[in-house]
Amino acid sequence: MRSFYSYLLLYISMILLLFCTSTKGYSDLEVLLKLKSSMIGPKASGLDDWEFSSSPSAHCHFSGVKCDEDHRVVALNVSFTPLYGTLSPEIGLLNKLVNLTISKVELTGNIPTDMRNLTSLKTFNISNNFFRGSFPGEILTGMTQLEILDAYNNNFTGLLPVELANLKHLKHLSFGGNYFTGEVPDKYSDIQSLEFLGLNANDLTGKIPAFLGRLKNLKSLFLGYSNAFHGGIPPEFGSLTQLKSLDMASCNLTGEVPESLGNLKRLRTLFLQQNSLTGRIPSQLAGLTSLKDLDLSLNELTGEIPESFSALQNISMIILFKNKLHGSIPSYVGDLPQLAVLKLWENNFTGELPENLGRNGKLCNLDVSSNYLTGSIPLDLCKGGTLQELILMDNFFFGPLSEKLGNCKSLTKIRIKKNNLNGTIPAGIFNLPSLSFVELDDNFFAGELPPRMSGDSLEMLKISNNLISGEIPPAIGNLRSLQVLELARNKLSGEIPPSISRCTSLTSIDFSQNSLSGEIPKGINKLEHLSNLNVSRNRLTGEIPAEIENMTSLATLDVSDNNLIGRVPCAGQFLFFDDSSFSGNPNLCPPNDSHCPARGSSHGHAPCFAASKLIITTIMLIILEGN
């Protein structure tokens, strides 16, 4: 009886093994093990649970593997584990595969033509690898059920495969991020099922094909970045009424923006930046009532921002910088309820910023630098506590900064140099927790720096060429992340606080053209990363700290035009500074001036010439004794 059951069990096992065997006599288990062997490179590991087993269904429990009721592999998902190998031809033996996803595992080599046997495939995703060579179009002829083909970010070359035109169920096609050349095949207009088409970041040429306007189900179209099309945007794209994303940035476009794009009522993203588009912004784009993100920057657009854009009630990002736009910034911009990002820099805008800008409580990034704007800075820019970047430099703004900015804890960057702003700098700015960059140069700010400073994130503080008076507060030493400190050309007095030595991340200090007095702090040598120190044109006294000779990172030193005394040190880093670094100090002696008084005993240094003389004398005595 026991023998009978043993034979029965063996018989059943053989039957099951027969069911889960692919063509050419290989079982799916054997195919997977061959795939593992090829996909794992010499220096990689992974797929550790893919091991041989006598169980006919063991492979169905491998990570990333799914089987049907007959133990045939129907899904293979191996992603996000660097394997560094290749895809072996045996992949074509898994002829029941419906889903093949091998993404971001750094495979290389060519795509095996044996994949033409995968006639049940619906999802084919090999994105973010290093596959190379031509994409073998012949493998697609039998994949009549294919819905997703994602080969994004590989190293494919040659022409785009025309065989795709026969795939009547294809919804998602991504060939972006490769090196395909030539033109977009006309036959692509036959893939009426397409909802996503990504051909961006290749080396495609020719005109952007107008026939793509016949893909009525298309929701996302990406054609930009690195492609070098000639001509303009086809007006036929206005027929893509299902479109939600249109990205044709940086692909050599010329001509005007078609008015017909205003028909795309479902469009949420329109990216046309970094081309050579000319003409006015069509007022018809106000018909894009679902639009959230608009980027027309880095073109040659002229005219004004259309008044009709007040209808864009869902828009959150308007980017128009580096064009030739003029006129005022429409007042309705401040009323756009979702507006978070407004970047209009390097145009010819005039007038004032809308008074209500920021009152929607959503504003997080405002950059209108390098225009001809005037007036005061709106008071409610940070009403919602979301403002991160405030960049208004190189305009004609006047008046004081609102104290509200000092309470805007979301701020990371303030750049408002080269304006006509005045009043005192809000004290709270120096205590904001996330603020890393403050640039207030070339204004008319007056008053004193606040006695309290605690901005842990502050890396750059530039307030040069203003009317700041009083002393540099000792609290400056609390700014431990500070890398650049520029307070030049103000009316600062008093001494340089020794606490500056606590700012150990500093790489550049400029205190020039003030009325600072006292000595250069002895602890300055603690600033081990300092490469530039400029304290010229002040009223500093005392000797140059000899400790500076050990500051090997210091590339530029300027202590000229002060009242320093004593001898210029001549060792270490001082060997790299020329005379101009020390000029304009009447009582400062060059290193080899024999009439210069020796340094005080507290410094423990003899004059350089005396030290040299002693060394020479010692050497001569040794030579004489040797003779």
From TrEMBL:
Compartment annotation: Membrane
Leader peptide range in chain numbering: 1-25
Record's bilayer topology term: Single-pass type I membrane protein
Keyword terms: Glycoprotein, Leucine-rich repeat, Membrane, Repeat, Signal, Transmembrane, Transmembrane helix
A Pfam match: LRR_8
Main location: membrane
Residues annotated as domain Leucine-rich repeat-containing N-terminal plant-type: 27-68
Similarity comment text for this entry: Belongs to the RLP family.
Entry protein name: Leucine-rich repeat-containing N-terminal plant-type domain-containing protein
Organism of provenance: Gossypium davidsonii (Davidson's cotton)
Lineage: Eukaryota, Viridiplantae, Streptophyta, Embryophyta, Tracheophyta
